[in-house]
Fold this protein.
Amino acid sequence: MGKKDAVPRGLRSPRYYLNRELSWLEFNDRVLQEGLCRDLPVLERLKFLAIVSSNLDEFFMIRVASLMQMQSAGVRKRDVAGMTPRQQLQAIRRRVCRMIEQHGQALRSALEELAQHGIQVLRPQDWTEDQRQWLRRYFQRELKEQLSPLNLSELKPLPILPGLRLQIAALVASPHLASGDSASSSLVAVPVPASCKRFVQLPGREGVQLACLEDVIAENLDLVYPGRMIKICTVFRITRDADVPIQDDDASDLLSNVQQAVLDRRRRAIVRLEIAASAPPELIKAIRKSLHVEEWLIYRIDSLLDATCLWELIGQKGWEHLRVPDWPPQTAQDLLGQENLWEAIQDHDVLLFHPYESFEPIIQLLQQAAEDPNVLAIKQTLYRTTGDSPIVAALERAAQNGKEVTVLVELKARFEESRNLRWARRLEDAGCYVLYGLAGLKTHAKALLIVRREADQIRRYVHLSTGNYNERTARLYSDIGLLSCDRDLTADVAALFNLLTGQSEPVGWNRLVIAPTGLRQHFLDLIQREAELSTPEQPGLIMAKLNSLQDPEICRALYRASQKGVRILLNVRGICILRPGLPGVSENIEVISIVDRFLEHARIFYFHNGGHEEVYLGSADWMSRNLDRRLEILFPVLQPNLRRRLIDILKTFFADNVKAWRLRPDGHYERLSPQTEPIRAQEIFYKQAVAAVREAEQTQRQFRPLARPQQD
């Protein structure tokens, strides 16, 4: 195919695009609606409310912070939807205020329901006198010595208050001053200890009664300031700009640059001030003046500040009747009846559909490779994992056993920098070759290569995935991986690691498509090919499942394909700037989003291709950052049975009418509802995984060899 067509000016009009920030807020609203769903047990609803809170934290730290930087720099450039940074910030505030109000209502309702089950979160006005006295003794015994009160009125320079940390603010005065003499009062901030649990369990009584840690501190501040008068107090929390660029042009300085970026976040500008809705205006004014916070950055919270603390309640044991039933991961369909992983992969490619199917085969493969004397080398990319991960432990063990172990650790994975630094050094200490990515690019590809000596040859095994090598998120995120020893595919992965280690430049790829060098054009070519092959008798079909669609060029290609009659089904979990259903432009495009118990994270791409169907898996979304500024991979699924399975998975997602939302042309989403039979994709996938295991067990029982009869 030739170069991409010139873009008709009409397809650049802002009326064809949605703002990415408002689109993301619509996604967070869909998460919030799960927290409002009465069909879900109360602890499951609290889980979604906690996620809404943590999502907003990151949104302000990165997206709002970036827009504020642009506004401060006088940038007036409009985004693809025609909005300036200032207009975006104004629209964000309006939308977030509505979201906060609804979130507070949902949280109060859920806590009321929780109380009906014997689990009460008591506020100070609900404490009995006995409880008040017990908490006062608890404060003196457990909390008082941990506190570090800060006098914001007198300390110069002002101490740096950390972001996302609860603070108790109070106006403190000498007892002889008149109650109205605010000028002689001092503003103090008392950080709530981060090492303490947020909820304090009260003794005695039936059921569980909890007090909030911040309430315990606020109600006993007089013990911190003996002889002084606590006039008024409240709880607040600030959010700081965390959009700190990491300069990685000079690889020799990358480690120090990452460490410096983490430190810099502590000193960045305040982008949000959350404060209890009951806070007196006098105290808000004092906090604003001390922290130099503008009024439009203040968000009044009429519920718990920092609802991520709800995970403490969600994680409590013994309340199973208040949760959704567990769906334990099953053995992968392609590994049923297989006892040897090496032989299974030699026999056929293996598809792993997490979390319905277990992530354990990946851990087992690495653990076996670490101990197998025939394994010569292991190479792996790590983007987000855990420091106590069995994967990290297996890599360490492999290096200690004398194998060549090369690990690419992406230090620039946002908010994981410090953790990644720590376990990267552990890997180095164990003898692994640790690389820190390519200058100017984030390595987002997920790839594992194992080189093994076998009887007749040196064989390579690969695992490629849409998700990270993290056994914890593999229980929470829906992802798809592929195990293979296909010669062309493994040769490509070996060439990829050679590229990453600087050993060589690839002369061409057999199976893989790589960003930033060829992935964008490959997607554009596939979309254009579908448009060219489409006819009224046999219209084209594109199905794509991804996390975000933000790239304008991809949108324009999809618009042109729609104009040629191609039917386009998009399952986009989060951001989508494309407007579906516009007459003459996108009436053949449908966009749905699914929010359910597992986070949808897989990237699957299908092209009908005139009947010669092609299916790809990959690490990249249709976002400019993925296509232009990250190292990403896309790989085809060639085995017909696996390709058909992925097509069926896509069709099931698009048939969902229980947890699916449809994007309207105006940017709002409407929840789908069953017209006949309810179809819930995630539930179907889990039932299929369970059924496959049961069928295999029944087959084994039916064909189990009879034991030799004993002789009399």
Remarks:
- Residues 1-7 have pLDDT under 50 and may be disordered.
- Residues 445 and 632 are 5 Å apart (CA to CA).
- DSSP finds 18 helices and 27 strands in the chain.
